[in-house]
Write a structure and sequence with these properties.
The structure holds three protein chains of three kinds.
Chain A: H1 15-22, H2 28-31, E1 35-39, H3 43-55, E2 58-62, E3 80-81, H4 93-103, H5 110-130, E4 144-145, E5 155-156, H6 162-179, E6 183-186, E7 189-197, E8 200-208, E9 214-218, E10 221-224, H7 245-252, E11 257-258, E12 263-269, E13 292-296, H8 299-306, E14 320-321, H9 323-327, H10 337-352, E15 361-364, H11 366-379, H12 387-413, E16 422-431, E17 434-435, E18 448-450, H13 468-488, H14 502-519, H15 527-541, H16 548-568, H17 580-604, H18 632-635, E19 637-642, E20 651-656
Parallel strand pairs in A: 1-2, 1-10, 2-6, 10-18
Antiparallel strand pairs in A: 3-5, 4-5, 7-8, 8-9, 11-17, 11-19, 12-16, 13-14, 13-15, 15-16, 19-20
Chain B: H1 8-38, H2 40-52, H3 54-84, H4 101-104, H5 106-134, H6 143-151, H7 155-182, H8 190-217
Helix pairs in contact in B: 1-2, 1-3, 1-7, 1-8, 5-7, 7-8
Chain C: E1 3-9, E2 18-24, H1 33-46, E3 68-70, E4 73-74, E5 96-101, E6 109-111, E7 114-115, H2 118-125, H3 148-158, H4 165-169, H5 176-187, H6 190-193, H7 196-209, H8 220-224, H9 232-247
Parallel strand pairs in C: 1-5
Antiparallel strand pairs in C: 1-2, 3-4, 3-5, 6-7
Classes of the chains: A alpha+beta, B mainly alpha, C alpha+beta.
Chain lengths: 670, 222, 248
Amino acid sequence: MALDSKIPQGPLADKWTNYKNEINLVNPANKRLIDVIVVGTGLAGGSAAATLAELGYNVKAFCFQDSPRRAHSIAAQGGINAAKNYQGDGDSTYRLFYDTVKGGDYRSREANVYRLAEVSTNIIDQCVAQGVPFARDYGGLLDNRSFGGVLVSRTFYAKGQTGQQLLLGAYSAMNRQIGRGKIKMYNRHEMLDVVKVDGKARGIITRNLVTGEIERHSAHAVVLGTGGYGNVFYLSTNAMGSNVTAAWKAHKRGAYFANPCYTQIHPTCIPVSGDHQSKLTLMSESLRNDGRIWVPKKKEDAIAIREGKKKPTELSEDERDYYLERRYPAFGNLVPRDVASRAAKERCDAGFGVNKTGEAVYLDFASAIERYGKEQAYVQHKDANDKAVVTALGTEVVRNKYGNLFQMYEKIVDQNPYKTPMMIYPAVHYTMGGLWVDYNLQTSVEGLYAIGEANFSDHGANRLGASALMQGLADGYFVLPYTIGDYLSHDIRTGPIPTDTPEFEEAEQNVRKQVDALVNNNGTKSVDYFHKKLGKIMWNKCGMSRNATDLQSAIDEIAELRSDFYKEVRVPGGQNEFNEELAKALRVADFLELGELFAKDALTRNESAGGHFREESVELDGPQKGEALRDDENFTFVSAWEYKGAPKDAVLHKEELEFENIELKQRSYK
Amino acid sequence: MSGLLKSSIGRKVAMALSGLFLVVFLTQHFVINSTAVIAPDTFNAWSHFMGSNPLVQYGLQPVLIFGVVFHFVMGFVLELQNRKARPVGYAQYKGSANAPWTSRNMILSGLVVLAFLGLHFYDFWIPEMIHKYVETHPEDPTRYYAETVHKFESPVRVVLYVISFVLLALHLWHGFASTFQSVGFNNKYSAGLSKFAKVWAITIPVGFIIIAVYLHFNQIPH
Amino acid sequence: MKLTLKVWRQKNATAKGSIVTYPIDGIDGDMSFLEMMDMLNNKLILEGDEPVTFDHDCREGICGSCSMFINGEAHGPDRLVTTCQLHMRKFKDGDTITIEPFRAAGFPVIKDLMVDRSSFDRIQHAGGFISVNTSGNTQDANSIPIEKENADDAFAAATCIGCGACVASCKNSSAMLFVGAKVSQFALLPQGEVEATTRVLNMVKQMDEEGFGNCTNTGACEVECPKGISLENIARMNREYLSASLKG
């Protein structure tokens, strides 16, 4: 099947408006005859479910958590971008569009990104109307912060809990519709298959996680807002339950999976403390505005620190290597996420890591404390040469800016980051890849839509800070409700979709077979054993820097691990009860397939783009020597993979990316 | 409006308001009693007024009785509801980690105060009612002081009084200060108000104790 | 370190549960409480037993899933943390730790330490929203300035994660802090004013129907709340409720 991205004709800035003028609408009386299933209740799924219900469709919403409010969008910290230009600093729809395409290393679709920038302003209006308490200044107007190296202040925020506030906004919109009976909410339900009737997605099979019941649900269209697949790495900043299952089952039913290898590895996370580690915690990127990143210059010092014989504060300035400032004088500690992450890995691999495991670098606030302290001492007419006074004043400034993050760090690590430098290390954070969708957000299966992190569409090979929330809400509130209407306008005479058909029967049996097999496997190893092993392979061979040899061996190792999994996994308990091990096993089974496709995609893309760094594709000389090198001639396309049995047999379809409004350039941060 | 007393918040406010009313009564009661120590003649005069004025006897007295009964009946109703709200209890519950003893044991201190009220009725109110309305003695405006003093002759009774007032103090320590929160008053003045309520919660019961002890040690002949 | 765990085990909602004792060894102070539970579960699985069921998801203190009653306190002895952020360094070698589910009639046990908190959702369905449709241009976000102090207070109320520690800690199993926080968030914002009367009446009615107890101002909820939600929110709700009742 040829990929048709269905991008509307016309100039970039008019595409979305023209599109909306031309699509078919469904009249309100007919909307009552149409059912829509929404899986996932994060920012994308929650906002979509609420909006579709408002419009009059009958919505069935599903989440595996005990309440829609607990979806992992809730953990986003920093903020949400919007081209409001409230600060009058020259922001515009075009500039947000441009920054997003450039930030994505020119691997995203122009038309989608432009639309995203265009509706970004509506999101802020909508959220404020819902009662989302964004930060405000003393004049009572909305405040903005700047984020991740862009040149304007366009990030709206609610302290370090922006994701929580936005999700609670979407959840409240859902609550209103649940109260009106327009959304039927299914909590603690996991989607385990998509049902296709005559080539169209017409329903899903779910498992009630409390009773174990396998259920059939039908609808005229199915929307997946099921998030990313970062947990394929076992350790990530994702929630424990975040999984790829819904997206993967859709893939197996014919939806193409796009760019699975594009993963964002965030540079400022709390390092792993031992084998017991179950997940990683992100520290907001904003910390890099004031923290300086370093490791010891001499290996002996690094070893002494690891063994607890030396303290970081004992090292003089000369004995420290501020490697980002050294390598990237222009951007210093504020280089983009992928660059900062790789640089940390490079130092640790070279033996300069500073924690017990050797996988941590310092993020030091001492200079910031001193700088702010001196400033305050002058302002308050105190002695700027008195070190104690300066430190106390500076600490207070830093506390006001980052207090909650410092407190969180202290709770987890048990060290006072005001006195000794923080330790950080990169961690898997976000996946830009996902189900391939066209301009309508429809996957390659008719009637099956993917929104938010679950699709691939807007961030290219690398996502800008504060753009994930923007995309999730844009898709759910302002894009999908239009595009899906165009599709559903053909379904006004279809009537309810029956579930007692062979297609539903086949899908249900398919799920039952898998559940039965896992519960009765009686192996000797826990699900986590396999998940951890998969994570190690992914991290070591498909992590921050990748090469052909490792990727090839990852493909083989994952295939072997998968076969071991089915032989040796042990799932205690039964299937007709709450059984977390069973739920985990079903998810890990899919990760074990996705991981292989991930490695294959990374192997195929022999270029360095955004979060995907191939050791074979670097600048060979000149001032950029050793830096990532994109290959626009051969790789300006989206890789969309078609399922053909074993993941390594997947077939590649290329969607060529056309840049009519932006000139492609190599990134430089020197 | 009609459902107000059926709602949790309505009942909470009713508890607060009836409690506040009892606080006012207690203040008034204390002021009159304190004259027993400093000015027996005033004590007689005020007691005579309270005991014979029709407005007090037929107006305020029933209101007071209603207030007392309402406060404890509602207290019981709420306590039963609260118990029902946790049908299976904890094996380990560390209440002391997050709330003061007084706030967690209002039902206990309340029951002691209620028991004391029984004694108080037996000691004063019932004899007084019999004296006035059953046996219909002619009113002697000077009898109150001597009668009161004689009640405190027994050390057992004084000890019971002291214990009861200590519990009353504990009850008021939490109860009075928290009425403001219950009626929705929580702002910059709250801290000051709460301090005042706590000082009051100690002062008044201690005052009653001093009176009881003073009268015990300053008996007059029968 | 070596610990003795006393864990509430209950097969399902209708089964009778009991405390079961498990010894556990090799606990590291850097582990989170849930990682310690993972270790116990891994041991149970390999020994052929069923692991202990508990709610958990984000493990960074924001989703509100985890809900253990540890040694007599919701989320354990540390302050301003959820169970997932409680670390084992708060315990000593040889300690006995009692782990129970959050208990309230409004939170029936599903299995082991997992409870059903859908009562909180139903309270929100009754009025935890502002009735605005998704048009995206209702009015410009800056057209209603909001006093910074009110915006900050609304935000502070809105940081509630809905974990239910307030109910679990309250000797009366009262849900007033949770409901108060939601009512307050909207009461403090001009957008929420229009529906203020019906919102507070409906939410309190639903709260009462769910079988939560009454507030007696002990303040335990505020102390145990992992997000430090203030009692002021309860006072504000009382005020809102009274004025709504008088109007309605």
